Amino acid sequence: MVIGFVSSSLVISPVASIADLPVLEVIDGDTIRVDSDSKVRLLQIDTPEIKESECYAIEAKKALETLVLGFEITLEVDPKLSQVDLKNKRITRYVFVGDKNINLELVKMGAATPWFYGGKGIYARELRAAAEEARLNKIGLWGACPGTKLNTSKGVSTGKIVKVSPSPSKSSLDQSFVNAGSYCKESEKGEERLSKNGTKYTCKVSETENRLRWRK
Q: Is the pTM of this model over 0.85?
């Protein structure tokens, strides 16, 4: 059953919902493929962009995979909203597995935020309430991506993934300091180090002792 774009021509389903469809692929956190020609954009929500390396983008895709892969889905139109995304050649629908609204479930999980592009749909109130609850409890992207704002008139912006280098441990910092007069290694000969009080010492021998020590 082809329900989307066929040879670049758009076909809009004349019925309110189409049931018992398998999901062939989860493209990202808010888009799936149900046959070779049809991509479905989940209505009224937005997830971080994988191509932009946004925070929580991979986790959002995994959340959607968990919810729909291996299940038959029902696609439901919103009579208040457009059925198509012409720019990206996708149909726009609510996705259900049984009685579970997957669009809403993603918001509850903190994997998506509401985005009322084109106006408020039939589930706008539930989506907004779910987002408020997830944000309050720092669920999903609300805890993982500091600074994310809830703005239903815009797509979500979680910022880029930031890799944080681990801070050096106290023991490793202590090892970088030296004690005056302590022995040092041949491999350290000529090196300069600081004591904890900031005094500079060099690994060297003295005129009276042919052993390497940390000396001024």
A: no
